[in-house]
Design brief:
The chain contains five helices and seven strands. The chain has 225 residues and is of the alpha/beta class. The chain has a seven-stranded mixed beta sheet with strand order 1-3-4-2-5-6-7, sandwiched between helices.
Length: 225
């Protein structure tokens, strides 16, 4: 694989050395692209966020950047329909991708979204990792496991972000996370690093930003081709 930055294949490879959260000095919307060829120049490390419809992606992005209105939240799932780029601290790209599951869209639109996402994930050379969002309120969903399997086939590095931890008890959320990881172990030799988050309580923000900062350092220190 030409990307050459598969950092995140297993938990044992991805232990963060620092829990000091990155300071977010700026975060701004850059562009929405219907095709990967129209995305910004790949001159910064890039982190994509994706999950099923209504998983809380926009709220998580706003929580991480400290801007309540950076990513548009909606009561109607499936509103994200392009590759949305944001630039953070003028140092790295945050990408909001359309959700899989695609809410109420036509079969033709569903196929179009799927191809756009596949092309982006497989061709974007500066993509460091994909943060796959999983709703911590639910038991493992096959659609999530199938998407992770597809990422594995494409050799795309990813991490798990369990969302909405404030919507259930701590015990229930922990149980659902554990059950999901156990389901993954049936197919995966290594389990990527995961984060339990709540956009309401800012849970997981410090850990995720520290992890991004570590990966940014690894990106810039990698051997140049």
């Amino acid at each position: 694989m030409s990307r050459g930055i598969l950092f995140c294949t297993g938990l044992h490879l991805c232990k963060s050395k620092s829990t000091q959260a990155m300071e977010i000095r700026s975060a701004k919307y850059l562009i929405s692209s219907p095709r990967v060829e129209l995305c910004p120049k790949p001159d910064k490390p890039e982190y994509a966020f994706i999950g099923r419809s209504n998983v809380g992606k926009s709220s998580l992005i706003n929580m991480l950047t400290g801007q309540n209105k950076l990513a548009k939240t909606s009561g109607s799932p499936g509103k994200t329909q392009m590759i949305n780029h944001f630039v953070v601290n003028n140092e790295w790209y945050l990408v909001d991708l359309p959700g899989y599951g695609y809410a109420k869209v036509s079969q033709k639109q569903r196929a179009s979204f799927g191809k756009m996402i596949e092309n982006y994930l497989r061709q974007r050379e500066n993509l460091v990792t994909v943060f796959v969002l999983i709703d911590s309120r639910h038991k493992p969903q096959q659609i999530d496991l199938d998407f992770l399997a597809q990422l594995g086939e494409w050799e795309i590095p990813f991490n798990l972000v369990f969302t909405k931890a404030d919507k259930s008890t701590q015990r229930e959320a922990a149980k659902n996370v554990r059950t999901f990881i156990e389901a993954m172990r049936e197919e995966w030799e290594f389990i990527p690093r995961s984060f339990l988050t709540s956009a309401v309580k800012n849970l997981g923000r410090k850990e995720m930003l520290a992890y991004v900062e570590e990966l940014n350092t690894m990106y810039h220190d990698r051997p140049k081709e």
